[in-house]
Amino acid sequence: MRKLLFLLFLISVSLSAQNFKYHSEEFYKSITDSIITSSLSGMKGYELLGELCEIGPRLSGSGNSLKAIYWARDKMNEMKFDTVWLQPVMVPKWERGKVETAQIAYPGIMSGKKLNIASLGGSIGTGEKGITAGVIEVRNFEELRNRKDGAKGKIVFFNRPFDNTFVQTFRAYGDAVNQRFAGAVEAAKAGAVGALVRSITSKYDNVPHVGVMFYADSVKKIPAAAIGLEDADLLSNVIKENPGVKINIKMDCSNNGEVLSYNVIGEIKGNEYPEEIITLGGHFDSWDKGCGAHDDGAPCIQTMEVLDIFNRLNIKPKRTIRCVLFINEENGSRGAKAYADSAESKNENHLAAIESDRGAFTPRGFTVETDSVTLSKMQMWLPVLNKSLIDWIRPGGSGVDVSKIKNAKALFGYFPDNQRYFDFHHSANDTFEAVNPREMELGSAAMAILTYLISEEGL
To answer: Which of 55, 276, 381, 420 could lock 351 by a disulfide, CB 3.0 to 4.6 Å apart?
Structure first.
């Protein structure tokens, strides 16, 4: 009897899979072709990205950030989303200031040589006269602890490179980023007066790549800055030739409390299951170098464009489709926490959430946090998703912002090709010109197709 029941179960699963395969290849062909055609022919998202980049960088708490927020709200209204609103969020206000310089002070023939640096987000300033001190070069925290006596009163120079031998660039980033996050704390524990961090980038140039750093309440705060790769190598060579070299650093960055900001939210109501929500989003803030085109302007526009594509093609989704532009991911994730708390308090039913925060390059796949049965079902969607160059759906993390949402059936991370991402990430290289319009629009189409499948099929 058990064998018979199991056989009937297998037959049922097989028939369901065959039925969906028919739908995926035939029933969805017309709508997927229309989505891709609408994305690539109109290039509307790319045009909107140009407008956004004209506003400039969007650091949380800045005037530009608020300009961008109101711009996005107005665009969502122009796109005729059913509902658009701003969700209040208190965010930290860190300001870079106007001074961030470094130079070799003395001695030797390189005396007076300027070094290209940029303050790390959240750092304190140096004071008007700056800091002049010797430099100790280390590759990691263990080496610093072993050489602790030599770090007292000096500037610790963390010179561990981005490892370009890793095929996955996010692995290389993860391997090096702790020196940026916690370098100032570890240096201060050793009695240092400042920290310099080799920029975490795959591109060899002299552009500093910034990002957030943190302080510990129990450890003295010292200034911290990133240094361009060319000057990092130069400084390393100078130290080898002259261990007694000193450098001067001046920075007038400052932390200035908290200010009011907003998440930008827009949605299209589902016509059969409006209580089931599919959320798409990215973080709307960016670092204040470049204009945050890849990180995370274009991905935010892609998620907006998914809803716009639905309206352009008069697609009436079965489930509610919501776009959330989260504020403050870069230095606090306040927007994600506010959205998740609100959703929980309202007892909202999030069926799925999709985050785009890896740049706007050629589509490759989606990572997803879900159960094995749901994952198996989604594998059958690949013939449809292949049309937008999506090759796989596999287990993996979603994103900093949507991961805060509780009890969603599936949390997705959009995964474009990442080989060039860290050429631009957190730097002045991250400009509108760095974004390819076809790659960006194919990403919009890929997310729109996945969203449509979830809306039609459920999970």
So the answer is: 276
Q: How many CB atoms lie within 10 A of CB 312?
A: 17
Q: Give, in order, the Cα–Cα distances in Å from 114 to each of 134, 195, 220, 252, 264.
A: 16, 17, 27, 17, 42
Q: Spell out the CATH class of 97-252.
A: alpha beta
- CA gap 198, 3 in Å, rounded: 63
Q: Is 329 a catalytic residue?
A: yes
Instruction: State pTM to two decimals.
Output: 0.93
Which one of 3.90.180.10, 2.40.30.170, 3.40.50.300, 3.40.630.10 gives the CATH number of domain 27-93+257-457? 3.40.630.10
Q: What is the mean pLDDT of the chain?
A: 94
Classify strands 363-369 and 410-416 as parallel, antiparallel or unpaired.
Answer: antiparallel
Q: Dig out the tokens for 335 from the structure.
A: 């927007």
Is there a contact between 64 and 58 (Cβ–Cβ < 8 Å)? yes
Contact 374, 409 (CB under 8 A): yes
- CA 170, 175, 178 angle in degrees (round to 5)? 110
Long-range contacts of 131-134 (CB under 8 A, 24+ apart): 131/155, 131/193, 131/194, 131/223, 131/248, 131/249, 131/250, 132/105, 132/246, 132/247, 132/248, 133/193, 133/194, 133/246, 133/247, 134/244, 134/245, 134/246
The type of residue at 408 is A
Per this entry, what is the length of the chain?
459
Residues sharing a CB contact under 8 Å with residue 304, sequence separation 6 or more, in sequence order: 45, 48, 72, 75, 76, 79, 266, 323, 325
Strand ranges across the sheet with 83-95: 83-95, 254-268, 319-326, 273-283, 349-355, 410-416, 363-369, 392-395
Helix (H) or strand (E) run with residue 375 in it: helix 372-379
Sorted by where each begins, the domain ranges of the chain are: 27-93+257-457, 97-252
Q: Do domains 27-93+257-457 and 97-252 have the same CATH topology?
A: no
Cα 53 to Cα 440: distance, rounded to the nearest angstrom: 15
User: Which residue type does 199 have?
Assistant: S
**For 25-40, what is the mean pLDDT?**
92
pLDDT value at residue 100 = 97
Alpha-carbon distance values, 376 to 13, 215, 278 (Å): 11, 43, 19
Q: Kindly name the residue from 329, 330, 348, 439 that is annotated as catalytic.
A: 329
DSSP 177: T
On whether the CB atoms of residues 319 and 348 are closer than 8 A, the answer is no
CA angle 172, 173, 177 (to 5 degrees): 125
Closest listed residue to residue 280, CA positions, set 363, 354, 359:
354
CA–CA gap between residue 241 and residue 109 (Å, rounded): 11
* Confidence at 250, pLDDT banded by 50, 70, 90: very high
